[in-house]
């Protein structure tokens, strides 16, 4: 199970991906691809292994961990999301 407590940092990117890095080693541990526009925001749930990301393409992706296949559960709001957080 991924726990962001003191172990991982995550960031959205202009290349339409979310990157997750190990804080101790600096190694990239995951690249999450789904969005068709720059990723504006991402937020890790404080209790569950779930990451939410939003993009300028108008999508919000929900990434559930653990698992080898990080398939997002998507929703498409009417307005462009400005920020997501738990």
From TrEMBL:
Organism: Malus baccata
SUPFAM superfamilies in alphabetical order: WD40 repeat-like
Keyword Chloroplast in annotation: no
GO terms under cellular component: Cul4-RING E3 ubiquitin ligase complex
One GO biological process term: proteasome-mediated ubiquitin-dependent protein catabolic process
Ranges of the WD repeats in the UniProt entry: 32-73
Assigned keywords, A-Z: WD repeat
SMART domains (UniProt xref): WD40
The protein, known as: Uncharacterized protein
PANTHER family linked: DDB1- AND CUL4-ASSOCIATED FACTOR 11
A Pfam family reported for this protein in Swiss-Prot or TrEMBL: WD40
């Amino acid at each position: 199970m991924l726990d962001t407590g003191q172990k991982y940092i995550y960031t959205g990117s202009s290349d339409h991906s979310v990157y997750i890095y190990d804080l101790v080693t600096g190694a990239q541990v995951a690249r999450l691809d789904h969005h068709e526009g720059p990723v504006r925001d991402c937020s890790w749930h404080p209790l569950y292994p779930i990451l939410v990301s939003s993009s300028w393409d108008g999508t919000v992706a929900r990434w559930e961990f653990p698992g080898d296949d990080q398939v997002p559960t998507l929703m498409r709001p009417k307005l462009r999301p400005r920020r997501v957080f738990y």
